[in-house]
Structure formats: C-alpha cells, structure tokens
C-alpha cells in the first residue's frame, strides 16, 4: 500500500472510531436509514443524494447491498472526499458513485432529480440559520416530489438543562473509551460547544419552511437526533 493509500486508510479508521464513540448507535443509524429508503423505494432503482459524503460511510453502508442505487456525494472537504474515494474504490462502487467537491449549489438542479437524500452530521457545523435554510431548500429543490429525506444533527437548547444532561451522558461515552476527564473537558470546550445547536422545534420549523412534510423524529443518541420527512411540491419560495 503506497503512502497516499495508507494515509487515507488511517484517516478513515480514525474518523470511524471517533464517530462510533460519540454516537454508540452509529452503525444502527445507517441500518435504520437504509431500511427506510428501501421501504420507500420499494425495490426500484434509486438515485441517492448524500450531503456530507466525505467520510464515505453512507456509500459503504448502502452501496454493496443495494446494487440498483446510484450515489451523488457532496462534501466541502477534499481530505474527507479522499476517504470516500478510498472506500468506494476498495468496494468496487466507483461506477455508481459521483463525488462532488463543494456544496449543494455545485449539484446541478437541471440534471439531478433524486429519489432519496440524506444529510447526516452536517447541519450543526453551519452556524447561520439562513445558511442552514439554504442548504435544506437546496436539497429539497433537487428531490422528486414526495422523495424521502433524512436529517441527522446535533440538537438542543444551548442554555437548557436538558442539553446539559445529554452532554453529561456524551462525556461518559468518551470516559468509558479511555479518555481522561481533562481531555474530555477540553473536547467539550474546543469542539462540542463550538458547533451550532438548535432546539428540535426550530429544526422541524426549518424543515417545514424548506418544503418538507410528514416530519418525524426517529432517532436519538446522546447529543444527536434524526428526522425523516418527504419533499413537498416545488412551489416553495427558494429565496
């Protein structure tokens, strides 16, 4: 294995290890989303839009066992896209995967009408509410009417006691993984508390404002929640 492949392999391993500590039900989450998409597609060929595809986990979780699905993965990080490319090459998925370095705006609306879409662990890295809304509206505009969409993000009222209790649980995941209390406290200070938390009611309002309907919360682990919904008609104002 050359140096570049070794680097990508190590990056992939590090990313996956940390994700599974931070979200103990990480693998189950991808299984749940796959089951939901399968039920909605009902065995049909499916084009899947993956926002934040750089880690490659959606592609590797859903690609091998769903040979009729094609994937368009988008990520702003070239390094993370290298992980996705490394994984898809390993599994022989390259012919069904198109990776785009950029944002939702780099996915052409005219030729990209998708059957399903996911945005997993991305929204909380966007600070401004208007930018979150633009992302969700951009996803909606690229989906067929009625297409299912899954959003997973950190959530909660930053000043509320409920989020503080869930943060205490999240700390325990890392302590059990062998991190020292000092290290975990630093992770909270320099990492977790830097991301953009929103109360779940506001997240659901954003989804609704962006044109999504039948919004249902289906997943919670630690600091993170997941919502499934459907794209409504494309008459929603895109401004």
Automatic annotation (TrEMBL):
Gene Ontology biological process terms, A to Z: methylation
Record-linked Pfam families: Methyltransf_12
InterPro entries, per database record: Methyltransf_12 (IPR013217), SAM-dependent_MTases_sf (IPR029063)
Keywords, in A-Z order: Methyltransferase, Transferase
Keyword set includes NAD: no
Domain Methyltransferase type: 49-148
UniProt-recorded Gene Ontology molecular function terms: methyltransferase activity
Methyltransferase keyword on record: yes
UniProt-listed PANTHER family: TRANS-ACONITATE 2-METHYLTRANSFERASE, TRANS-ACONITATE 2-METHYLTRANSFERASE-RELATED
Protein name stated in the entry: Methylase
Organism: Paenibacillus oryzisoli
